[in-house]
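tool_call: predict_structure(chain=1)
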Amino acid sequence: MKGKGLIIINAADKSGNTQYKVNRMSEQLRELGVDTEVVTNDHFLCYVDRQGIVSRAKQYDFALFFDKDKYVSYMLEATGLRLFNSARAIELCDDKMSTHIELAKHGIPMPTTLAGALCYTDDAVIDDKYLQRAQQMLGFPMVVKQCYGSYGKQVELISNSEQLRQTVERIKTKPYLFQQYVGYKKGQDTRIIVVGGKVCCAMQRVSNGDFRSNIELGGIGYVAKLNDDFVAIAERASDILGLDYCGIDILTDKDGSPLVCEVNSNAMFGGIERVTGVNVAQAFALHITKQVYGK
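tool_result:
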């Protein structure tokens, strides 16, 4: 088999995590007979003109879309290019509130989540009763998240009314949400990688000083042994969102049952490969070649 794939990354993303992912996927696809080319999202691979959508990527069999640029992804798909993940799946996962809504429609258990009321101007006045309603429904501490963000950097733990007001004032013109704080295992969650609808590997992430367990924020990963409930909810969530590949973050409720916290369509896997010893890149590459080439 001789194939040609495209890897699309964000032009501003210079992170080591992304470079690791690109290198590993290129390496594993090459071993399967597929050459890849890396292109940043600022190359105008597609554009709209009088005739419709024009593609400058017709020479590729597929694209690994390691970005969140929904316009480029939708245009590429419209011209017939197979994306991993699909434009729709990426868009659903990129907006955390959209993720919760879609999963809730299918009965996936999650922490109680409220959509923040978006303000359109910086001088908009935040109503005290609005904040009081959020407090009455969720109590303190509560979590406030911007709907767009990565590595836990746009997630805050709110302890009192004054902190809640200051936080909402600061982010009121951006999409955000309020969420129940699930603190039965403080600073811990389970990151599960799902490839082709099946759990590939999992790690327990633990932070000693932060309510967020992200490895990028100092969390430590350990190999996780999943029970059937965790496997089922991860695979079901991936299926609902139409994902070929994802990282799913799961919290533990007071009775030990799983609660989906977030789903990341572009989850990095350097940390989980090192912790578990599982070749995630190979599993993903094998899924891609089976989908595109039938083997």
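agent: The two ends are 9 Å apart (CA to CA). Proceeding to next step.
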